Amino acid sequence: MPTVKIPPVLRPQTAGEAEVATPGSTVGDVLRSLAETHPGTHSQLFSDGGELNRYVNVYLNDEDVRVLDGLDTAVSDADTVMILPAMAGGQ
Amino acid sequence: MATAAEPIEQVKQRIDLIANTKAREEVEAGAKLIDVREPHEWDEAHLEDAVHVPQGELLERIGDVAPDHSERIVLYCRTDNRSSRAADALQDLGYENVSVMRGGIVSWQDDGFPVVAAHELTPEQRMRYSRHTLLPEIGVEGQVKLLNSKVLLIGAGGLGAPSAFYLAAAGVGTLGIVDDDVVDETNLQRQVIHTTDRVGMPKTASAKASIEALNPDVKVVEHRTRLNAENVLDIISDYDVLVDGADNFPTRYLLNDASVRLRTPVVSASILAFDGQVSTFVPYAGPCYRCLYPVPPPPEMAPSCGAAGVLGVMAGVMGLLQANEVIKLVTGVGEPLVGRLLLYDSLGTRFTELKVKRDPDCPICGDHATEIPESEMGKFPDYEAFCAGEPVLR
Asked: Can you identify the CATH homologous superfamily of domain B8-110?
């Protein structure tokens, strides 16, 4: 199963887990399965229309899925899907 | 035969001393110009086309520099005494076509002719920065670039404090600091440029005091304000590199948009809890902050350090990674984090690198971003409107 890396800001919604093995053959499948298992992540990942929220960056390994096929990007079991939020802290 | 004791006037009678204007013509016509002064004098300033062979090494090295005894050679030193003795020695060796530039580099400079003054470290600076100049990648030239550079830090907090401190130690000549806050007790766990007895003092003033105590070479410019659409272009236009350690999204987007307009690179980092991110945005050479993060997250996805806490040491690591990027941008060595986002997980001690590409649809640096007329410069969207609910608490 692909591994999803959960950013600290979403970990309260995954019972503190930083990495969650999640089934799916595309990035969209994987994130939707994650949201099914951990419903608290749904509204933060997806808009009401089911699109990935624009403020959520998702990487397949080290590549931004926006430059691949977005949610349709194919994922294999060895892949890592990383959810990355922008952070503003500097102080 | 010349001896060291022979009066210089007597030596000079055997030497062809030529005016600097003539020397210039001769060098342009292909004569070999040799500077016979000591290395520290050469480092301070020398003539552009000169070869450096200190007088003490001249006889040993002249065979390599000018194998042909009939080659046209012009020597110079500070005035013309050492070069006259050197010319005399070369004539003794059989060199037939040697002249000395009258008045040396002193009269050359007095007459307003150009010199290469890149190597202008004082004796104190040569000591202070010796561990830099020993590095071939930096050398005296790189150190001089640092001393001539102007770097602006946005924020003198968790990132800006360590970054500013090390950039000051490194000899960055001008450090501007933008911060409107005062030192607070809760800052001291990580903001190492401030001290316990300066609680309540403006952060810019506290940072200035620490920097001046560390390195008198550094000129500190205090900008005791927050960046906004009205002041951003004015403030940042004086600087070569911007270091973003802001604590809120509006400032980050504002700084990005303004820096792209001025084509000034930004070294950007952010920190939260045990995690940090850093990247270098060089306008048009790589992506900008908006290519990476087109829109800011909503408040629940963007807690502040004040609300969530931050490991002080992790902030230091990220601030120093920023300083490291600045040094590379200024000196031109190495490979900056352009098009790469580096993540640091301090709990796992893991670094992860992600690729960041320029977004062709980026509203600021994309292919269709409209060129902004001069009259519109400094007019930015209403950043406050999308402020991600960052509490004022820092």
From this structure: Rhodanese-like domain (3.40.250.10)
What Cα–Cα distance (Å) separates residue B159 from each residue in B154, B245, B276, B285?
9, 5, 10, 25
Contact B296 A9 (CB under 8 A): no
- A3: which chain B residues are within 8 Å (Cβ-Cβ)? none
Query: How, if at all, do strands B150-154 and B73-76 pair?
Result: unpaired
A60/B53 Cα distance (integer angstroms): 58
- Tell me the nearest-neighbour CA distance from A70 into chain B, angstroms: 14
Under a CB-based contact definition with an 8 Å cutoff, are residues B257 and B228 in contact? Answer: no
What does residue B151 show for φ and ψ, rounded to 5 degrees? -125, 135
Q: Buried b vs exposed e over B365-384: b needs ≥16 C-beta within 10 Å?
A: beeebeeeeeeeebebeebe
Summarised one tens digit per residue, pLDDT across range B154-212 is 999 999 999 999 999 999 999 999 999 999 999 999 999 999 999 999 999 999 999 99
Contacts of A39 (CB under 8 A, 6+ apart): none
CA B178 to chain CA mean position, Å: 19
Q: From the CA of A58, how many Å to the nearest CA of chain B?
A: 11
Which residues make up the CATH 3.40.250.10 domain(s) of chain B? 8-110
Q: Identify the helix (H) or strand (E) that includes residue B318.
A: helix B312-331
B55-91 confidence digits (pLDDT tens): 999 999 999 999 999 999 999 999 999 999 999 999 9
CATH code of the region A3-85: 3.10.20.30
Residue B30's pLDDT band (boundaries 50, 70, 90)?
Answer: very high
Q: What kind of architecture, by CATH, is found in domain B125-373?
A: 3-Layer(aba) Sandwich (3.40)
- The amino acid occupying position B122 is T
What ipTM was predicted for this assembly? 0.94
Q: Give yes or no for a contact between B43 and B32, defined as CB atoms under 8 angstroms apart.
A: no
Element (H, E) at B277: strand B275-281
